[in-house]
Design goal:
The complex is a heterodimer of chains A (289) and B (406). Chain A has 289 residues and is an alpha/beta fold. Chain A has helices spanning 57-72, 87-92, 108-117, 119-122, 138-144, 169-177, 196-207, 244-254, 263-268, 274-279; strands at residues 2-5, 15-18, 20-26, 31-37, 41-46, 49-53, 77-82, 100-105, 131-135, 149-155, 179-191, 212-218, 228-234. Chain B has 12 helices and 19 strands. Chain B has helices at residues 13-22, 31-44, 60-68, 78-86, 103-112, 122-126, 163-173, 192-210, 236-248, 262-265, 299-302, 394-397, and strands at 4-7, 26-30, 49-53, 72-75, 94-96, 116-119, 136-141, 148-150, 177-182, 186-188, 218-220, 255-258, 269-281, 284-289, 309-312, 319-324, 333-340, 348-351, 372-376. Chain B starts with a strand and ends in a 9-residue tail after the last helix. The chains are: A alpha/beta (289), B alpha/beta (406).
C-alpha cells in the first residue's frame, strides 16, 4: 500500500492512501496521477499537488459557475478557460438560457484522460450541443478571439506550473477585451491563508483593469489551509450587489439542484475575513464606500 | 601521481571478456560497491540522513539502488530534477542544494515537489519572496578548509558573522530558514574542519534559539567523506568518530543530514581503456589510449584526482612510460613518466575508483564517443537487464586482483 503526500508546502501537507492507482502520466514536464482513495474517491494530482477529487469537487465547481452566472442573470455566451476535467462544464451546462459555451483547454489529452478516469466530473457535458471545445493556450485564445462573452470562468491550475500565464496582467486585460458590456470574469485564486501573496498580486492586477473587483470564498477540504478565494472582476458594480431576493428568484427559476450553492451562500461568500481584506487592501473602507 | 599496479596478463581476462562483449572504452559500475559504501557510511554516522549528491555520478542504477535503500537525493539543476522525476523518486526525499538559482530553476523544483532550497546571501533570499509560503531554506555558511583537495567554501557560503543578520532578515520577510548547511570541501584529509563547522553551527543554532525565534532545526553537514585513490582503504568509521562526537553535542531537536557524493560513487566504477597507438619520444614509451582527460579521465583536470591504474602483463621489465588520451590536444595525458611493462596494441589499462566526477564531466571533444557504461550486480532493473547480475568483478570479490593489495 502506498501513499500520496502532497508537496505544496515544505513543513505542512496532506497525505492520501492510494487504494488503487488508475492512471499515471510522467513526462519531462509534468507528473499527473489519478488514484482512488477511500475517503475522497478518485483524486487527480498534478506535479504533487491535488487538483480535484470526486468527493469535494462540487463545492469548487458550483461556486465558480453558479455565483457569476446567477449574478449575471442572463448570460448567453460563456467562456471557460482550462477546466479539462469537465466539472466546470457540467455546472455551466445546467443553465438553460446559455446559448453557447466555449471551453479552451491547452491539452486534449487532459480532456480524454478525465473523460475516461473521472467520468463523474463531466457526466456527459462534453456532448452538450452548445459546447465548443478549443484546444489552445488560454492567454493566446483571449488575446486573439473576435468573439465576446457574458461570463468568463478561469478554471486554472496554480501559478507555479502550467497555469502561470492565467494569473498575469495581460491575461486579465485580454479577458476584459473579450467581455460584452457588463460582462464578468471569475478566477480560481488559491488558498489565501496559506498563500496570501497570490491574492495580493491578483488584487493589484484586477484593480488596474476593472471598475469593480473583489473576491469571494468557499472552503474546499482538499485545497488545504482554509478558505479558497475566487477572483471577481467586472465593469458593472451592480453584479456584486444583487439582492438576495433576486438571487432566490433566479435560482428557483433555473431549476438547478445543488449540494453547496444556494442564494444565501452566494450572498455571504463575498464577506471576507479581515486578514483577507487587509491582504487585498480593502480593510477599513470596503463597507463605508 | 597515479598509483600503478602491474598485474599478470591472466588477471586481465575478466576485463578482456567485458571489452570483447561491450567494446572499449568501457565504464564498469558495480552496484554492490555502492551498497557497501552506503552501509559503511550509515554505520559510521548513525542517525544521519543521507542525500546522494547526484552530480558526482548521475547514473540511474546508483539512484535506483540508493532510492531502494532509503536514501534521499541532493539535486542542483533542472536536469538532475528531470532524472529524479524519471526514476519515480518521491520529491519529498529531495533537496535542491545549488546556492545560486534562476527563477525558472526554483519553479522547476517546486513543480517537481521539492521545497527545500539553499541560499547564502540577500539577493538569493529575495528570489524566494514569491514562494515564501511554500519553501523551507538552508542557509549555507562558509568554513574554509586547507585540508580539502577541493575547497567548496570559496565559491559559496556566507561568513559566520553574517548568519544572524540573514536569519533576522529572512524572519522579517516571512521566509522560513529551517536549517544551516556547509561544505568544508571534498576529499578531506581529516574531519577537523567538519568538527569545527559543526561546533560553530551548534553555537549559532543555540544562540538563535535563545533569541526566541523559530528554531533552526536541521543541520546539513555536506559531504567531503574521503575515499582512497592509492588502492588503500579509508577507515570511514575512524574518520567519522570526531564528527559523531560533535553531532552528539547538538540540541536534541536538530535533524542532521549529509550530502555524500564521492564516497558513494567513486569506488563503484572502473574505467577500461585500450592501447590504440604507441611511440617512443625522448626516451619514453608513449601509449595512446581510447579514453583520456577529455572524457572519463576528466576528473584528473577538474577534480584534481589521480586514479589508480592497472596494467596486465607478464613482462617483468619496467620502462619509463606515458599514458595519453585519444584527442589531438597535448594536455590529454593521463600519466607521465610512470614505470610500465611494455604494452602492445589492444592491451587494456584499467582505471579504478573512477565513479565520482569522471563520466559526469566527460566531454565528446573531437567528437570522440564517451565510454559506455555497463552495470554489474544491478538488482533494481527489469529482469531483461539483469544478465550481468551474476558476474563478479575480480577486484571486488577478494579474489584475483585484490590479492595483490593485501
Amino acid at each position: 500500500m502506498s501513499d500520496f503526500a502532497e508537496t505544496l508546502y515544505d513543513s505542512y501537507g496532506q497525505a492520501f492512501r492510494i487504494d488503487e492507482q488508475l492512471f499515471e502520466l510522467k513526462t519531462e514536464h509534468q507528473h499527473l496521477i489519478i488514484f482512488h482513495n477511500a475517503a475522497f474517491g478518485r483524486v487527480l494530482a498534478l506535479d504533487g499537488v491535488v487538483q480535484t477529487t470526486e468527493k469535494d469537487e462540487f463545492i469548487y465547481h458550483e461556486m465558480l459557475a453558479h455565483v457569476p452566472l446567477l449574478a449575471h442573470g442572463d448570460a448567453k455566451k460563456v467562456l471557460i478557460i482550462g477546466g479539462g476535467d469537465g466539472g466546470m462544464l457540467r455546472e455551466v451546462t445546467r443553465h438553460r438560457q446559455i446559448v453557447q459555451i466555449t471551453q479552451v483547454e491547452i491539452d486534449q489529452q487532459v480532456i480524454d484522460m478525465c473523460r475516461q478516469f473521472l467520468p463523474n466530473h463531466s457526466r456527459g457535458a462534453f456532448d452538450d450541443s452548445r459546447v465548443n471545445i478549443v484546444i489552445d493556450d488560454g492567454l493566446n485564445f483571449v488575446s486573439q478571439a473576435a468573439e465576446r462573452f457574458d461570463v468568463i470562468i478561469s478554471d486554472s491550475t496554480d501559478p507555479v506550473g502550467p497555469g502561470e500565464a492565467l494569473f498575469r496582467e495581460d491575461f486579465y486585460k485580454a479577458c476584459k477585451r473579450c467581455l460584452n458590456a457588463g460582462g464578468l470574469l471569475v478566477t480560481q485564486n488559491g488558498v489565501a491563508f496559506m498563500q496570501p501573496d497570490e491574492v495580493k498580486a491578483t488584487a493589484r492586477r484586477l484593480g488596474g483593469i476593472f471598475n469593480d473587483w473583489h473576491f469571494y470564498s468557499a472552503a474546499v477540504p482538499t485545497y488545504i489551509g482554509g478558505i479558497m478565494t475566487f477572483g471577481w472582476a467586472t465593469d458593472n458594480p451592480e453584479l456584486r450587489r444583487i439582492g438576495i431576493e433576486t438571487l432566490r428568484q433566479r435560482f428557483t427559476q433555473s431549476g438547478i439542484r445543488t449540494r453547496y450553492y444556494n442564494p444565501e451562500i452566494h450572498f455571504a461568500s463575498f464577506a471576507l475575513p479581515q486578514y483577507l481584506l487587509e491582504a487585498i487592501g480593502k480593510a477599513g473602507h470596503e463597507y463605508h464606500s | 601521481m597515479n598509483t600503478i599496479r602491474s598485474s599478470s596478463f591472466e588477471q586481465g581476462a575478466f576485463y578482456r571478456e567485458l571489452v570483447q562483449t561491450h567494446g572499449s572504452p568501457l565504464l564498469v559500475l558495480d552496484a554492490l560497491k555502492v551498497r557497501e559504501q552506503y552501509l559503511a557510511l550509515q554505520r559510521a554516522l548513525p542517525g544521519v540522513s543521507f542525500f546522494y549528491a547526484i552530480k558526482s555520478l548521475p547514473h540511474p542504477a546508483i539512484l535506483r539502488l540508493l532510492g531502494d535503500m532509503g536514501a534521499g537525493f541532493d539535486m542542483a539543476s533542472s536536469g538532475e530534477i528531470a532524472l529524479v522525476r524519471e526514476l519515480r523518486i518521491s520529491a519529498r526525499r529531495t533537496i535542491h542544494s545549488h546556492p545560486i538559482k534562476r527563477d525558472s530553476d526554483i519553479r522547476d523544483a517546486l513543480r517537481f515537489g521539492c521545497t527545500t532550497f539553499v541560499v547564502d546571501n540577500v539577493d538569493e533570499l529575495l528570489k524566494f519572496l514569491p514562494y515564501k509560503h511554500r519553501v523551507g531554506l538552508f542557509l549555507r555558511i562558509s568554513f574554509r578548509s586547507k585540508a580539502a583537495v577541493v575547497d567548496l567554501s570559496k565559491k559559496f557560503g556566507c561568513a559566520v558573522e553574517a548568519v544572524s543578520d540573514l536569519l533576522c532578515l529572512a524572519a522579517r520577510l516571512g521566509i522560513h530558514i529551517k536549517g544551516l548547511c556547509f561544505h568544508v570541501g571534498s576529499q578531506c584529509a581529516d574531519a577537523g574542519r567538519q568538527v569545527e563547522a559543526i561546533d560553530a553551527c551548534n553555537t549559532l543554532i543555540r544562540h538563535h534559539h535563545d533569541t526566541g525565534a523559530a528554531p533552526v532545526s536541521t543541520l546539513d553537514i555536506g559531504g567531503g567523506f574521503p575515499v582512497a585513490y592509492d588502492l588503500g582503504q579509508v577507515d570511514i568509521d575512524g574518520y567519522c568518530a570526531p564528527i559523531r562526537r560533535a553531532l552528539d553535542a547538538l540540541p536534541a531537536y536538530v535533524n542532521v543530514i549529509a550530502e555524500p557524493g564521492r564516497f558513494l560513487s567513486a569506488p563503484s566504477t572502473t574505467c577500461i581503456a585500450t592501447v590504440i597507438g604507441k611511440a617512443v619520444r625522448q626516451g619514453l614509451n608513449w601509449y595512446y589510449l581510447d579514453d583520456g582527460v577529455y572524457s572519463s579521465f576528466s576528473g584528473q583536470i577538474y577534480d584534481h584526482m589521480h586514479y589508480p591504474l592497472e596494467v596486465f602483463s607478464d613482462d617483468v621489465r619496467r620502462m619509463p612510460s606515458v599514458l595519453a588520451g585519444p584527442t589531438c590536444d597535448s594536455i590529454d595525458v593521463i600519466a607521465e613518466d610512470i614505470p610500465l611493462p611494455e604494452l602492445h596494441m589492444g592491451d587494456l589499462v584499467a582505471g579504478h575508483m573512477m565513479g565520482a566526477y569522471t563520466a559526469a564531466s566527460a566531454s565528446d571533444f573531437n567528437l570522440l564517443k564517451k565510454a559506455k557504461f555497463i552495470v554489474l550486480n544491478d538488482s533494481t532493473t527489469a529482469p531483461s537487464n539483469r544478465e550481468n547480475s551474476s558476474v563478479k568483478a575480480p577486484f571486488l570479490t577478494g579474489s584475483g586482483v585484490d590479492r595483490k593489495i593485501h
